Structure formats: C-alpha cells, structure tokens
Amino acid sequence: PVADKCYVFLVKNPANYHFEQIWTNKGLEKAKETAKLRFGFKHTYYDSKDYDKMEKLILRHNRKVKKDTEKALEVLKENGFKVVSESFAVLS
Known about the structure:
Strand content: 25-35%
Largest sheet: 3 strands, antiparallel
Radius of gyration: 18 Å
Shape: elongated
Distance between the termini: 63 Å
Structural class: alpha+beta
Helix content: 40-55%
C-alpha cells in the first residue's frame, strides 16, 4: 500500500486564519477535494517551500482581527455595554 501523505492548507476563516492538514494516499487532487468538502471557509494549498509565506499571512490577519476586536470592545464599553467576553456584551 502507498503511505499517506500530509497536505497542508491555509483555512481563511474570517475570525481566525489557521493551518489544517489533510492526510491521504490518493494525491493532491484528492486532498483538494477533501478540503473543499471539509472546510466551510475559503482555503488555499501551499507547498512546503511556501510555509513561511503562509505563516506571515496567518499572523498578519490574526493581528488585524485582534486589533479590530479590541477597538469594537472599546466602542461597546463607551456606549454603556458591559463586555462579558470577546464574543458577548450586554447593555448595562
């Protein structure tokens, strides 16, 4: 039998870019089909030589999301909301 190979994808979830792995012994095209079915968000396959590029994209996007979230929390607090968590606020 042919050994499974790992294919790494960048999953572009708007709230959190991250790596996901697909393991298959049926080649890249099968891995892309599986990724299309498995990930609800946009995704891109990167060859191992491009991992640095992928990591930079992830870090840059996630820093932007964090900064936007902090700004949104400030606006909520200024408008009388009590922030319970990053995803939940109530009007005081």
